[in-house]
Structure to design on (837 residues):
């Protein structure tokens, strides 16, 4: 029944949608209403069913029950293509596009400008350039997409969907690998589209962004609808309670005092370590029981530093030492041998083996470290898998499930578990809380502190400054692939980090 | 683009190989030899063009050799025994092979089976069917055959560009245009990049799969007809193992066996390289013709190793462009 007081007409109506994967009931009789011209946030914990709902609406998964109406008419798309034709454009959580095609081909795949049956390459490139310009990107659109960074690939995917969105635009965690500036641009574009009457569904775990951009919020929990609210009248704590079904335990900064820190032993040190054209040589000491945060903008050299430290990239100068002894880090294997672990940012391309089970994924690195001639017994594997599934609250808690069938956030947790299982002396985490819900987010931060107390050395990259401030004992700030500042103790706060990041911007403004 | 693209490397190998052969046997560098080379490898060039589409899309088609064999037998019997006019026989067999390919594509898509298995079954099926038709070689004496065989364009230097060589060149050029200039071609690359992603981006993956295998089988049918012109006979054992030569030509031509990258021109160069090796062996006269296989094997190995190297290089984040990873 329609609410007669409702100002905007409803554009997309979902009624009583259910979807099960075998025994997993991913969606149970969920209702959802998107009005024309509104930005509607779809929220919930990892595994709540957000992505599943999007895929059911767009016909990627067949639905078990329920109806979907678009502009009052019932639709039942059987594929992403059919949904597109109906006017629903989507950026799915696992975007990725096609790295082997050019940027332009990716933007215009299956809808290239044609003349006499032939793709008008020049025209296509021109349009691609114009399209990306709206997103602040000026790149060579004829180059293959795979040659660009993850962030650029992501923006390309969004640009494609925006260009395709005739009536509805669905964005499943679009901002996960974007930095502040790109998010700003995206939000600007979203507002413009909304003004034109397009309905936008926005999934995100960044609550700040949700409050900034959305008009309305729908919350799912365990595949059920919890409720729909106006963003403006929903306090944050109330929202979190809706999502988690419980209160969130406060995480407070648990930084060690200065005295304690000095007493700690150095785990690994890097002197004048660097690689030409990659990262300017830096000095870095990582101590047992200490978290070092790496802060900086996208492309400032954070991931590059992490890769050098782990050995994923070979340094061409400088000296690395582990427990005081000089070592050579030529390859990830060297890193693993010295007891390093590295949890990369791009779980899809750099880590998760979707076909293997949760258990197999978790024991992968540990098995590699032990060598093939000392296989882990099945009992040991089960034991380890169960422990981490419980510790990280991986859902569903079934170690024998293929990882590819888990929700995005839960895949991230499996990857983390893999490296924890190797009991490393130094763990490098690149954006460990990306795509992880508020509840698990707090869990992971708590876990990071606990690991530290057990003597682990941690190097953590994060774009969320609040988070870095919460757990870091020291923060290294990067800019233009150079380590520009190191903050410790009381000096660590968001303001100081921002000041260090922005120093050159201020500089340029003066010049 | 950093480094040499694989096609260029293939071209360099071909030119260098040709120069080496020509140094030893100056006669090789004549339009006569080149013309023969094109004629002898016409059917291979045609199937390999179809195979290029299949492999770029991330699949494989093992049935092509058998489809060629079946086609020769069918055509020979239709013309010689059943009294069907040759043109009708050609149209019929092309329709049949296209349908056969389409069916394989449909099975691959609908049942989500590996193309290797499905086309392996297709290979046995087509070969078996040709034995069912006839186990002996059936000579074709229809007048069209001698007309077509006699037709040739004279090239300067006395070489002959035969009808079947011309058919092959037209198909190679047509294939290259289809692959590089049309929406269909772009979708072939998209499928090779990732079927799942292509589907999410709105590509009709099922239809594409059917069309791609249909194209491959259709070209195998044409290759079969060309083969029957070349041998003036239909024989159920003809073109055994040709699918492997074809795959080799495609890979030597720089197409990634895992899909997503490659070109028809590269494949054509790959066919020429194989033809050149065969020609060299013929000129030498003392070498066993099995050396062709050995040389092809070595080249294949070299190219696969090279591609792995290139792929690994492309994956290195150091090579990433502007605004690289965080
Ligand atoms: N293809 C699939 N096969 C089986 N189970 C699946 C499949 N896709 C999702 N699931 C399950 O359905 C549930 C909902 O997953 P979904 O991906 O919708 O979560 P989500 O809300 O998007 O979470 P996240 O925030 O982590 O992305 C999870 O329990 C997940 O394991
Ligand atoms: Mg999701």
């Amino acid at each position: 029944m329609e609410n007669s007081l409702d100002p905007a007409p409803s554009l997309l109506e979902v009624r009583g949608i259910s979807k099960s994967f075998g025994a997993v009931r991913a969606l149970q009789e969920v209702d959802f209403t998107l009005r024309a011209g509104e930005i509607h946030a779809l929220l919930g914990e990892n595994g709540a069913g957000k992505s599943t709902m999007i895929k059911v609406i767009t016909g990627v998964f067949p639905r078990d029950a329920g109806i979907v109406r678009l502009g009052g008419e019932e639709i039942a798309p059987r594929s992403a293509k059919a949904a597109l034709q109906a006017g629903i454009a989507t950026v799915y959580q696992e975007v990725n596009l096609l790295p082997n095609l050019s940027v332009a081909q990716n933007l215009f795949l299956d809808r290239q400008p044609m003349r006499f049956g032939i793709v008008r390459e020049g025209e296509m490139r021109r349009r691609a350039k114009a399209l990306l310009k709206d997103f602040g990107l000026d790149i060579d659109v004829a180059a293959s997409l795979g040659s660009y960074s993850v962030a650029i690939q992501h923006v390309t995917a969004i640009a494609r969907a925006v260009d395709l969105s005739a009536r509805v635009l669905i964005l499943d965690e679009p901002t996960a690998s974007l930095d502040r500036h790109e998010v700003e641009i995206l939000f600007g574009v979203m507002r413009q589209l909304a003004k034109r009457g397009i309905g936008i569904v926005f999934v995100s775990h960044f609550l700040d962004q949700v409050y900034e951009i959305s008009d309305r919020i729908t919350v799912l929990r365990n595949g059920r609808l919890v409720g729909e609210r106006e963003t403006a009248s929903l306090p944050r704590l109330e929202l979190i309670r809706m999502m988690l079904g419980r209160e969130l335990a406060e995480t407070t900064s648990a930084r060690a005092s200065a005295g304690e820190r000095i007493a700690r032993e150095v785990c690994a040190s890097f002197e004048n370590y660097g690689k030409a054209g990659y990262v300017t040589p830096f000095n870095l000491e990582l101590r047992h029981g200490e978290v070092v945060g790496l802060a900086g903008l996208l492309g400032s050299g954070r991931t590059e530093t992490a890769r050098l430290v782990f050995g994923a990239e070979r340094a061409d100068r400088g000296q690395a030492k582990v427990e005081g002894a000089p070592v050579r880090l030529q390859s990830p294997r060297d890193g693993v041998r010295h007891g390093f672990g590295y949890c990369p940012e791009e779980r899809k391309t750099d880590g998760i083996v979707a076909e293997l089970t949760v258990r197999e994924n978790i024991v992968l690195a540990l098995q590699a470290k032990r060598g093939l001639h000392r296989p882990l017994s099945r009992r040991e594997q089960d034991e380890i898998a169960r422990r981490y599934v419980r510790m990280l609250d991986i859902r569903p808690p079934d170690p024998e499930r293929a990882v590819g069938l888990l929700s995005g956030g839960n895949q991230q947790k499996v990857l983390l578990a893999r490296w924890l299982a190797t009991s490393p002396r130094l763990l490098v985490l690149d954006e460990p809380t990306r795509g992880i819900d508020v509840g698990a987010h707090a869990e992971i931060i708590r876990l990071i502190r606990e690991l530290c107390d057990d003597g682990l050395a941690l190097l953590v990259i994060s774009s969320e400054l609040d988070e870095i401030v919460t757990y870091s004992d020291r923060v290294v700030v990067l800019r233009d692939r150079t380590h520009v500042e190191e903050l410790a103790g009381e000096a660590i706060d968001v303001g100081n980090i921002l000041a260090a990041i922005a120093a050159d911007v201020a500089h340029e403004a003066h010049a | 683009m950093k480094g040499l693209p694989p096609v260029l490397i293939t071209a360099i190998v071909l030119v260098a190989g040709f120069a080496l052969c020509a140094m030893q046997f100056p006669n090789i560098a004549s339009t006569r030899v080149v013309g023969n080379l094109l004629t002898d490898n016409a059917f291979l060039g045609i199937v390999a063009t179809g195979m290029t589409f299949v492999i770029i899309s991330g699949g494989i088609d093992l049935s092509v050799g058998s489809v060629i064999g079946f086609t020769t037998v069918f055509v020979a019997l239709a013309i010689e025994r059943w009294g069907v006019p040759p043109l009708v026989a050609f149209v019929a067999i092309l329709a049949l092979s296209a349908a056969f390919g389409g069916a394989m594509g449909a099975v691959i898509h609908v049942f989500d089976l590996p193309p290797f298995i499905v086309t392996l079954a297709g290979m046995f099926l087509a070969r078996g069917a040709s034995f069912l038709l006839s186990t002996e070689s059936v000579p074709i004496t229809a007048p069209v055959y001698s007309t077509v065989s006699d037709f040739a364009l004279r090239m300067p230097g006395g070489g002959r560009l035969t009808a079947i060589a011309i058919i092959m060149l037209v198909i190679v050029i047509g294939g290259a245009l289809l692959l590089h200039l049309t929406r269909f071609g772009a979708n072939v690359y998209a499928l090779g990049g990732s079927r799942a992603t292509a589907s999410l981006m709105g590509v009709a993956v099922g239809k594409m799969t059917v069309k791609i295998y249909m194209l491959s089988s259709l070209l195998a049918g044409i290759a079969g007809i060309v083969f029957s012109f070349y041998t003036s006979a239909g024989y159920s054992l003809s073109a055994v193992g040709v699918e492997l030569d074809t795959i080799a030509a495609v890979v030597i031509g720089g197409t990634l066996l895992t899909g997503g990258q490659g070109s028809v021109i590269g494949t054509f160069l790959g066919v020429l390289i194989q033809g050149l090796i065969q020609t060299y062996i013929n000129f030498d006269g003392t070498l066993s013709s099995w050396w062709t296989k050995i040389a092809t094997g070595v080249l294949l190995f070299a190219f696969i190793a090279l591609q792995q190297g290139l792929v690994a290089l492309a994956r290195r984040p150091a090579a990433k462009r502007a605004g690289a990873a965080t």
